[in-house]
Amino acid sequence: MTKKAQAAMEFLVTYGWVILAIIIVAAFIWIFLTGECGKKSTGFLSQDIVITDWAVYNDGNLTVAIANRAPSYVTVYQINKGSFVGSPVIEKGDSSSFDPLVDYPGGKKAGTCYKNLELAITYQPKDKLNHTITGTISGSYEYAPSSGSGGGGSGGNISNGSSDSFVDYQYKRDVTFTEDKNIARNNPYLITFNPNNNVQSDCDDVIVTYNEQELASNIKSCSSSKVEVAFPLTLSPSEEKTFTVFYSNSTKPTPGYRTNGSEPIVGRIVFTGVSSTCECGNSKSAELHSEVFDWSIQDTEGLITCSSGQQCDQADVQHVNDYAGTTYNYSTGQPMNNYDLIMTGYRWNKNGDYSEAQYLSYLQQGGSLFFTGHDGAEVPFTTTFLPEEYDVSYGERQLSCTQFICSSSDTSHQIGDPSFCGDWGYSCQTMNSIDANSNYYKIWSTGNVKPILVVAGLDSPYNINEVVGPETPTS
Predict the structure, then answer these.
(1) Rounded to the nearest 10 degrees, what angle do helices 314-324 and 283-297 cross at?
(2) What is the CATH number of domain 40-147?
(3) Residue among 210, 199, 133 nearest 176 (CA)
(4) Hey, do 40-147 and 163-262+462-473 end up sharing a CATH topology, with the first three levels equal?
(5) In the CATH hierarchy, which fold is given to the domain comprising 163-262+462-473?
(6) Distance of alpha carbon 14 from alpha carbon 25, whole angstroms
(7) pLDDT for res 213
(8) Between the CA of residue 216 and those of 83, 387, 468, what are the distances in Å?
(9) What is the per-residue pLDDT for 280?
């Protein structure tokens, strides 16, 4: 053996393990840099929202976390050109998780890679146009939450599963909602059907599902021949969705969301910047009141009270009755939940007259609220006593206080009657503008920007086209 060959052999023997280690490290680096199951995203160009995290499960489902970077709230309308489970509104500076209901092919092995799955998100910043951002996501499949390993957040769904999850129910009905007024819907809506004597006495065995996921719902009325159940409905303009109602399960306990305060409200809320509680003898005030009472209570009779504020008492209710021929009663001192409508007067208590929990319980039991204009010297302020998604901000009026606004009304809504506008016969009726999120619908607004009357709650702002299918056995 030559000296050169001998030196080479000695080098390999001495330093071979170092070379092997370098090769192994280089292989790991190559795998990492080439993106083998590396979690990454491309695209999604937006100054308003940012995708902060996501998980694609081995059953094809997806959870995606979105952060709001816009100067105010953002409303998410669609993910992957479909609907989703989760609140559509992301407040300024907040993040929310969503479970889209249009996902990817399932049957994958957890830990294997996916690359460049397309993802599209349609959203709308406050007072701006709708936008759609697109991009791709790559990573490795995770175990689906229902499998017991791995997984992401629930995004607001009550249960994940298949139709096998509901085999203990004897009957079901499909119910299709079609948005028919070219507006976005984001409030609780009511399903009414005949259970044919196939329900528990309290209807706690009635549940609402969408894409085999149980949704939080609220039983508004229950009998052997008629059930009214409300649930949160989110629809884009002209969108259609079909839900399934399951019932007839004698062993079904009360769902947790009906006892822990997370069921949807079945009352209604009206906020206005108009100092309208005034028995001044003019028909405009009485007409507005009568329409608010009728829309809120859904009847021409009911029990009303005033909680705080000036110019709000029995005379206001009688003023409406004399004008409209209604039979509303006025009372004070009764338990909160006895009233069909609680209204406020001018300079009402901006900190609320009840606790947030009391307002929530009242709305969940079907009570309605009517808040009027506030002293301009005390604005701006934001309510903090209502359930968070129903708080609003009062601001300075944006037009002359001596006139009720005469433009930008939805005249197809009963509270949007154009006869309200003009001089009401006293000094200053339009006190404030209102800043509200997408749970509220603008009835009267200044140039469609700052509303002076908004509504929210059950079937708000309008009833919707609802088709209830036939009763069918689940097996």
Answers:
(1) 90
(2) 2.60.40
(3) 210
(4) yes
(5) Immunoglobulin-like (2.60.40)
(6) 19
(7) 83
(8) 16, 16, 19
(9) 56
Give strand pairing partners of 208.
Answer: 215, 245
pLDDT band of residue 164 (cuts 50, 70, 90) is: low
Tokens, residue 250? 């004698």
* Residue 219 confidence (pLDDT): 96
Mean pLDDT value across the chain = 83
Distance CA 261, CA 257 (A): 6
Q: Can you give the residue ranges of every domain in the chain?
A: 40-147, 163-262+462-473, 268-457
pLDDT in tens, 43-84: 888 889 999 999 898 888 888 999 999 988 888 888 887 666
Q: Residue 13 corresponds to which tokens in the numbers above?
A: 């023997």
- To the nearest whole percent, how much of the chain has pLDDT over 90? 42
